[in-house]
Fold:
Amino acid sequence: MTPILAFGFSPMDAILILVVILLLFGGRKLPELANALGRSMNEFKKGKEEGGKPAVEEKLEEKNPDASEKK
Structure:
């Protein structure tokens, strides 16, 4: 089989991994895990954006929180 997905996984490998995850966590827990993963990704993106701001802009936002809402 030729690798199709990232990291050299074939589609059969991906299906096998998904089945194992389903067996480990159960059907009820998977939506909660997916939700937590989505929230974590959003927080990471937010932190990445805030990390790129200049220090002066961050200081202004701390002193005047209304200034960030006007943008």
